[in-house]
Amino acid sequence: MNTIPQEFQITKPLIQDTYLVDGELKKWTGKTTEVYSTISSTENYAPTLLGSIPFMGETEAIEVAESAQKAFNNGQGLWPTMKVVDRIKCMEHFVTQMKTTRTEVVKLLMWEIGKTLGDSEKEFDRTVEYINDTIESYKELNSRSAHFSKVQGINAMVRRGPLGVVLCLGPYNYPLNETFTLLIPALIMGNPVIFKPAKHGVLLISPLLEAFKSSFPKGVISIVYGRGREIASPIMRSGMVDILALIGNSKSAIALQDQHPNKNRLRLVLGLEAKNPAIILPDADLDLAIQECIAGSLSFNGQRCTALKIIYVHENIAAEFNKRFAEKVDALVFGNPWEKGVSLTPLPETEKPAYIQELIDDATSKGAKVINAKGGEHSENFIFPAVLFPINKEMRVYHEEQFGPVVPIITFKDIQEPLNDMAESNYGQQVSLFGKNIKTIAPLIDTLVNLVCRVNLNSSCQRGPDVFPFTGRKDSAFGTLSIEDALRSFSIRTFVASKDNAYNNEILQELLNSKESNFINTDYIL
Ligand code: G3H
Description:
By secondary structure, the protein is α/β, with parallel strands linked by helices. The protein folds into 2 domains: about 20-270 and about 480-490, Aldehyde Dehydrogenase, Chain A, domain 1 (3-Layer(aba) Sandwich), CATH 3.40.605.10; about 275-465, Aldehyde Dehydrogenase, Chain A, domain 2, CATH 3.40.309.10. The protein has 17 helices and 25 strands. The strands form 7 sheets. A 7-stranded mixed sheet has the order 15-18-19-14-13-21-22, sandwiched between helices. It has a 6-stranded mixed sheet with strand order 10-9-8-11-12-24, with helices on both faces. It has a 3-stranded mixed sheet with strand order 1-5-4, covered by helices on one side. Helix 3 (about 85-100) runs antiparallel to helix 7 (about 210-215), helix 6 crosses helix 16 (about 485-490) and helix 8 crosses helix 9 (about 250-260). About 50% of the residues are buried. The structure holds glyceraldehyde-3-phosphate. Glyceraldehyde-3-phosphate binds near residues 174, 304, 305 and 306. InterPro entries: Ald_DH/histidinol_DH (IPR016161), Ald_DH_C (IPR016163), Ald_DH_CS_CYS (IPR016160), Ald_DH_N (IPR016162), Aldehyde_DH_dom (IPR015590), Aldehyde_DH_Superfamily (IPR050740). GO terms for molecular function: oxidoreductase activity, acting on the aldehyde or oxo group of donors, NAD or NADP as acceptor.
């Protein structure tokens, strides 16, 4: 179709016919799954064939688990015992190679998940920056630990060490960035990683396979393809996984944990669902609140775990807020990811428009109205965001994480109402609070910080910047991610201690001087 710029056209399908195991890109000759984009390449709508990926099963699952376990080798492997400086060199090699794949990865991000060109570029660049920042943070962590402390007659060198094999599963909405925010810290801390790309956003990993293969020792990173049931389940059942690192939904997280034979040995690093509310107080700056709520609820079509998924508006300002908010939603431009000025784009999940329609039908059958003119308009791969008002607790959209283009609005008279709802909710990631009077805001902040893990004042919810802790209460997360926190989440404190006497001290001194040990050394990495 001539409206697709030439550089973004799909000229031939990408056949991913290898997988990464034991340091080799092994040929796959078995069953494959075709990968389609919901974006059409032709005048008359038809999904576009992007390529195919291996459909792997239990045999390959066990093959990669054994390879990863061998790379860890009960802590004796090359990778877990390697000097920090050498692990950093491997990571630097990887990031240098990765940078050369930007054009290809960005193009696939647009086709596979429908992310706009600008946001796809941002996802790539943010990931490169995250890797560089992780390297710097690890150097600092290393320098802080590079000394002996003497306490009660004991000399000790305390560091952080790897835990073992990590199974890493990322989400489709940030198939590169969020996956790498797990995979990179896990690797750099000395853990071998098995990575299965998300259900959408899988081919975009192909340009990176060579970089992974050439940057790390064999077995340190394995990349497999297929359905969670067929591949992740047998890996968990094998008992060879020490950390389950997953950003996605809690049902799969629970199902996978349940399959592990030694649950107490399994560490968890999870980013799960959320239902972040916006609370608009009567004295809020409405222009600002509307602008932030549009971005918060509808950037990337609402497919963000941090998206605003319900808006509480004080009843005194609801009429004005709703009118202006609905107009702004209708003014958003829908189009293909590379088109200038688009903010709404095709949904990668074919079943999503029907699901959003179900939520709309359910809410309207229970008294809500679609208050924007374009709300609920269907096209082949999209449903225009519907603003639903007024919402009540009988409706599915009140409880379910919509993860798509529908914005429920509810009114409140007393601030205790949204606070009670948040306390009752299964989720506790973030909130956006809009208002000005500090006499009202101050006690609210003091409560809200105990209900969620980030209170965004007159600002939409978001994960970044990545130096800030990203976590949640209740069913929204397990563990904390940030550049620094992730290094901690994927490691454990471990140390060498020795009674302070001449005999021991001489040995320690010799260990330090000889640099024979990779653990006992005081080298600074600048
Ligand atoms: O899907 C959840 C992501 O962590 C959201 O990240 O707030 O940067 O879009 P973001």
